[in-house]
Amino acid sequence: IRSYYAAKAIIQESKNTSPKLLMRAFCPSLATNRDKLAQVLWVLNWVSVITGITLFSLGLFLKVEIEKRREVMSKEIDSVPNMLISVGLTACAINFLGGIICNDCVDTSKFLRWKLLMLPYIICTFFFTFCILLGALMCYIMRSDLEESLFWGLREAMLYYKDTDMPGRCYIKRTMDMLQMQFQCCGNGGYRDWFHIHSLPNELVIFRRLRSNVEGKYLIDGVPFSCCGLYSPRPCIQHHITNNSAHYNYDYQTEELNLNLRGCRQALLEYYTQIMHSIGLIVLVIWLFEVSVLIGVRYLQTAMENVLRQGDPDCESDGWLLENSIADTARYNFNIIKNLGKCYQVDDDPNIDVPSTSQQTQENVPIKQIPVAR
Amino acid sequence: MALLAKKFDLAKRVKLAQGLWLLYWLSVMAGILIFSTGIFFKIELRKRSEMMDNNESHFVPNLLILVGLVACGLNTFGGKVCHDSLDTMKFNKWKPMLKSYMIGCGFFCIVLFVTALLCLLMQISLHFALAEGLKNGMKYYKDTDTPGRCFMKRTLDMTQIEFRCCGNNNYKDWFEIQWISNRYLDFSNDEIKDRVQSNVEGKFLMDSVPFSCCNPGSPRPCIQHHLNNNSAHYDYDHHTEDLNIWTKGCRDALLSYYGGMMNSIGAFVLMFILMEALVTIGIKYLSTALETMADPDNPESESEGYLLEKSIKETFSDIMTKIKAPFKGNQVEEGDAEAAPT
């Protein structure tokens, strides 16, 4: 604590001469600038509460969308929605408190209640805005995680497609079919993925003749009905796809509309990327809004503190972002942190007159040696 | 003797005016809601007009849109009157129009009732439009190269997937229609030639359905061809298999979808009639309360508000005499003319 006062005393001397960062004078008038700022900030804080609720609901929406298709994802992608939900709730709470504080700032006496809390509040909000920015950035980098999860998830879903009698997997067929119909896609990367999968239940395979038998699996060049293209002019061909002679007037290499050509992994990835890009954009806008509200609150705080320092509520007071330049403030805070652990040292305290050490020992020795003279 | 008379002092009049003003604004919002449901209904009909042969009647949604707009207008006027009612000068501006306004509101309630009735009865006409439209739709399913019908296949497939239905009445309708175009039939194949020649109209009929009839919830891969032939598929009995394809007909599915929509719109309009009646009664009370003030210049004076000036019988006989008066006038004159020469 003593070192804190020492540092502050040094800086106090240079206070009047050094420029303050982005200083603004708040002039008195009938509707004072300070009061107007406080009222505007009160309204803005309430708007920020609404944006906090928006963030929360965006996170919830993303979570619901991911849960809907959880079965085709190998691992849970819950970091981004959870982050958005928690950031949204925290933003609501912080801005609610900010609104109450700004409402009380109009009256100098009420401001005294919040005086000690305001600086910590501003610092917390400043670090919180970094969280919002992180949330926005995470939306954009989630893509690679999602792609990997979809790749393994879809592969597994296609392997278990035929297991409609096994508990825990009986609805994978329906989920996969509805997915392929809704997104107009087929397979993992393309419809050929279905050729590698043993997609018929065992009992149905017994009486079929095997054409090519690899690893004991019955592989056919057929796809499920849900891969059928809706825009095809001819009735859907889902079996013997690579065999041109099995169907009249058919060439599988030039036929484009018969089946869905897009892979489901790519379709789902595009869908989720679109959602997340728009969410990321909205979060960035909210971040800018929060930063501007924070700057306003900081101005209000410094202006109110100066009013209290000058003692007269009606006089002009200055408001600023930082008392000194960024470099000085950083050095000041760094000194505080450096000296937090140290104990009180007499040498460091400028208020105490400390003579030089050599003089001190000489004085000590004579004092001890002076006998009582007679 | 006035019907349902009630005493009003200043405070009660103010409360009545304020409450009525609020109710009028709620009615305006309800009117906007009716307008938007009319638009929504129109869009939904347009979306699936191909299934109804493009000749479905748009009378009911158009009526709903009109009714919504008129309701907004009437209720805004009523709200303005209520707002001005406590200021004598402003109210005198509106006083002469009030009687015709209330009669207009009465007619509007009757129109609303007719609208609600039509909403509920439209399902019958929709039933016939859908039956005809789906029959033709299935007939043109294969004509993907005929201009004007090339998207029928896609529309019908999407409808069957979305509404989880198959065919018109049920899936067997597909057995009576050739839904595979001749372009994709190999007529050099004997089997196909036999089948076409054995049919009276030369159509290629099969016991199979399009892929859009397939049920994704079926535990086995979809069987679309040779549906009636148990031996064509392993472990398959077409009498007991009910999960393979959708068995419901698209006409029933679409009817229940539109029916639900129309029932809720009709119910909402009926509730709106109650609200309209309430505000009309309220404004009648307010206007009579303001008219019968004992001392017109003193706003604090007491007044009496009523629904009808005389009892129902007397009011009705008054109206009848008023209607008969022009005709009676001629008879009396003729009688005089006859009496005069004699």
Automatic annotation (TrEMBL), chain A:
It comes from the Eukaryota. The chain crosses the membrane at residues 40-62, 83-101, 116-141, 279-300. GO terms for biological process: visual perception. It is found in: Membrane. The keyword Oxidoreductase does not apply. Keywords: Membrane, Transmembrane, Transmembrane helix. Belongs to the PRPH2/ROM1 family. This is Tetraspanin.
Automatic annotation (TrEMBL), chain B:
SUPFAM superfamilies: Tetraspanin (SSF48652). PROSITE patterns: RDS_ROM1. Keywords: Cell adhesion, Disulfide bond, Glycoprotein, Membrane, Transmembrane, Transmembrane helix. InterPro entries: Peripherin/rom-1 (IPR000830), Peripherin/rom-1_CS (IPR018498), Peripherin_LEL (IPR042026), Tetraspanin/Peripherin (IPR018499), Tetraspanin_EC2_sf (IPR008952). Pfam families: Tetraspanin. The chain crosses the membrane at residues 21-43, 63-82, 103-130, 265-286. It comes from the Eukaryota. The keyword Coiled coil does not apply. GO terms for biological process: cell adhesion; visual perception. It is found in: Membrane. It is a multi-pass membrane protein. PANTHER family: PERIPHERIN-2, TETRASPANIN. This is Peripherin-2. The lineage of its organism: Eukaryota, Metazoa, Chordata, Craniata, Vertebrata.
